[in-house]
Amino acid sequence: MEFTSPADEFPLGTVFENLPGVTIELERLIPHETLIIPYFWVRGAEAEDIEAAFEAHTGVVSIDLIDSVENEYLMRAEWEEQYFGILSALAQSNIAVLSGIGTKDGWDFEVRGESREAISEFRTNCQNHDIPIEITAVHALLPIQGDSYELTDTQREALVLAYERGYFDSPREVSLEEIADELGITQQSLSSRLRRGHRRLIAGTLTSQGV
What we know:
By secondary structure, the chain is an alpha+beta fold. The chain folds into two domains: about 1-135, no CATH class; about 155-205. It is about 35% helix and about 25% strand. It has seven helices and eight strands. The chain has an eight-stranded antiparallel beta sheet, with helices on both faces.
């Protein structure tokens, strides 16, 4: 399932008030029912600015800088036990976070549950706790058949459209923003679909490993 949420709904999103130009990307996360300590990457700001911007957050015990790679910073957040938010709702339903990208314009998530019941439970948890989400896509993954390589419909659509519009040409004939506008989604969501689609294609064609 893919869904969006307002920038300030997710606790880490309060950083956009101080650093509106940053992008946050969650590490792939398989949540535990009682403990959620997500790792996430921050880019678009200096390390000292990032640490200062994360000083006070509802639901967060601490945020620590773990590592840095060029201009990207890996950080870790520890949550208050009583706080209930998007990650808590996902954890209770045993749903894995495949991708989570946030900017001042909002959050784009791609998640995977083992059943439709798990997805339904997550939606109910969000409703019961007044957590605003907007579901943008729900689909089932199919086993590899022919040239599908376990691509979701939305990943395939994004890759094919980007190819047809010349996004992969050099020089590019179209921008990420233009493709996103044509699909009616955000640039973050499109970027996530392209990245996940590339990963599946590589895993299905160039390696012997699954996705």
